[in-house]
């Protein structure tokens, strides 16, 4: 009896999964997505995966080396821009660059992925500047990028994805990282 129930539940789960994977977004090749922090890690992987699916990826990298490596690994559809999320001037320049690219189509997706974790140590070992360095990248930069591009996201009826961490729920070590991720969680809730 329990074996049959388990088999039916497994079958329903597989059917639901198959159905969800079959769903597609119409005119995917016409949609633009900006991803920050694409030099390496999650941002780089996401940029390459979305490019492979046909989206028009605008990949923001901190360094020219990271941008060149990403362009070499992707299709000609993927475009890169240099962006330091801790610099208001860099954010303004990148936002203008994005506006030129997307035109009146707007920005279908914004993925705020850029972030740093160091310095990370017991709080009494750190200075205020150590905290500020991490908060400027992980939280204040994320907020400024979002506010700069929100009109384009609204224009395309798009989505904002803020990459946080489990450290946004529970703080396991000192430094600005956990504090910044708590802030990202709060900003995301208020943005909703």
Report on the architecture of this protein.
Belongs to the short-chain dehydrogenases/reductases (SDR) family. This is RDH16 dehydrogenase. One of its GO terms (biological process) is steroid metabolic process. This protein has 192 residues and is of the alpha/beta class. It has a single domain (28-191), classed as NAD(P)-binding Rossmann-like Domain (Rossmann fold, 3-Layer(aba) Sandwich), CATH 3.40.50. It has 6 helices and 5 strands; from the N terminus they run H-E-H-E-H-E-H-E-H-E-H. The protein has helices at 2-22, 41-52, 64-73, 88-102, 128-155, 176-191, and strands at residues 32-36, 56-61, 79-82, 109-112, 159-162. Strands 3-2-1-4-5 form a 5-stranded parallel beta sheet, sandwiched between helices. Helix 3 (64-73) links the parallel strand 2 and strand 3. Helix 4 runs parallel beside helix 5 and helix 5 (128-155) packs parallel to helix 6 (176-191). The longest helix has 28 residues, at 128-155. The protein is globular.
Short account of what is shown:
This protein has helices at 2-22, 41-52, 64-73, 88-102, 128-155, 176-191, and strands at 32-36, 56-61, 79-82, 109-112, 159-162.
Instruction: Report the major sheet.
Output: 5 strands, parallel
Distance between the termini: 45 Å
CATH architecture: 3-Layer(aba) Sandwich
Helix content: 40-55%
Detail the topology: elements first, then pairings:
Elements: H1 2-22, E1 32-36, H2 41-52, E2 56-61, H3 64-73, E3 79-82, H4 88-102, E4 109-112, H5 128-155, E5 159-162, H6 176-191
Parallel strand pairs: 1-2, 1-4, 2-3, 4-5
Signal peptide: 1-20
Family: Belongs to the short-chain dehydrogenases/reductases (SDR) family.
Pfam families: adh_short
